[in-house]
Amino acid sequence: MARKRGRMTRTGWFVLVLSIHWILLLQCCCVASWMYLGVASLAGSVHDDTCSEVPGLVREQLEVCKDNPESLLCISEGARRGILECQSQFRFERWNCSTEKNYTVFGPLLRKGTKETAFVYAVLSAGVVHSVTQACSVGNLTDCSCDMSRYGEADVEGWKWGGCSDNVNYGLWFSETFVDAPESATQTGRNIRSLMNLHNNAVGRKTVEKLMSRQCRCHGVSGSCAVKTCWRGLPAFKDIGQYLKNCYERSVRLAGRSKRRLRRKEKARRREPITNEELVHLSRSPNYCRNNPKRGILGTTGRRCNRTANGAESCDLLCCGRGYNTQVVRHVERCRCKFHWCCYVECKTCETLVDIHTCK
Ligand SMILES: *[C@@H]1O[C@H](CO)[C@@H](O)[C@H](O)[C@H]1NC(C)=O
Ligand SMILES: *[C@@H]1O[C@H](CO)[C@@H](O)[C@H](O)[C@H]1NC(C)=O
Ligand SMILES: *[C@@H]1O[C@H](CO)[C@@H](O)[C@H](O)[C@H]1NC(C)=O
Ligand SMILES: *[C@@H]1O[C@H](CO)[C@@H](O)[C@H](O)[C@H]1NC(C)=O
């Protein structure tokens, strides 16, 4: 009798622990936690075992990490690139893409399917394609290498395919396998939010592919370009960021009802299919003006603004009409430098007063 009661209690404990585990998982899953690898990379703390410390990675992602430590570095680097590009693209906006140093990464912000969420998913997914593809080209990964399929072929215009073409197909496949894994039907059941994430991930990947371009090098006597070899190369990551930022401006609001496919909310355009050049979102963005920690909004108080500009960085827009403080800062620099024969440089020091404006 006593033994039986003991077993029951153990089962009870097991169920309790399991349900706590589930509650924790439900709270922090849903927001792609692999993005934390980018924050860890920014902090310089990615190591062999990082994946096992990140909560909320799904089985497929853990397997990739375990089987293939080199690819873990690529994923972290890709996420890092995505985060930095996001911060650069949004440096003048009310929401500036700032991150937290814990597993929430963007705070509670990504829980809502806004345009900003759409951009984050797309740019990080593109980041993984970009870094994995580069790693293939330099021979850092064992499963891929350069794309040599056209090597030696001559083009009608008189140049030759040579060198190492970036093998974007492997990067695309890898990013899809890893980045999309948490959204797959078996993980979450089909819901409109995971369809939104999947679509935006795909837009990010497609952008890398679309912006690939032919890059050439001239050979021949003193750069005469008698022989020209070309290869297909990756775009600079900031070009991808800029392209996706434009997609963000035109992001399509979705009708939230359907669980099976994406449909525009705008009635007049319902029948137009959504293309893979359009980011999609479900909810309207908050205005990001005022600090609201619960929703992960920092507010714009203290942000530096530009009094003479007209765009998003203008004090009018960035400070949301609250006005700004002006601070005069003395700026000292070396100036009017002269080169004296031979050999030293003499400079004067110049002082300028600079007005710095920050939002109230
Ligand atoms: C974003 O703005 C906040 C102030 O609102 C600032 O503390 C933070 O450093 C900024 N983040 C980035 C990445 O520029
Ligand atoms: C994450 O860190 C931020 C500060 O960087 C803090 O405000 C927030 O509560 C933390 N979230 C969790 C879940 O620890
Ligand atoms: C290749 O691997 C080395 C060593 O791990 C690393 O320093 C370098 O950044 C990697 N290069 C690319 C393009 O992934
Ligand atoms: C402010 O904006 C003006 C006009 O766009 C620009 O010329 C100027 O360099 C900007 N100032 C700063 C400090 O960024």
TrEMBL record:
PROSITE patterns: WNT1 (PS00246). Keywords: Developmental protein, Disulfide bond, Extracellular matrix, Lipoprotein, Membrane, Secreted, Transmembrane, Transmembrane helix, Wnt signaling pathway. This is Protein Wnt. Ligand for members of the frizzled family of seven transmembrane receptors. Belongs to the Wnt family. InterPro entries: Wnt, Wnt_C, Wnt_CS. The keyword Transmembrane applies.
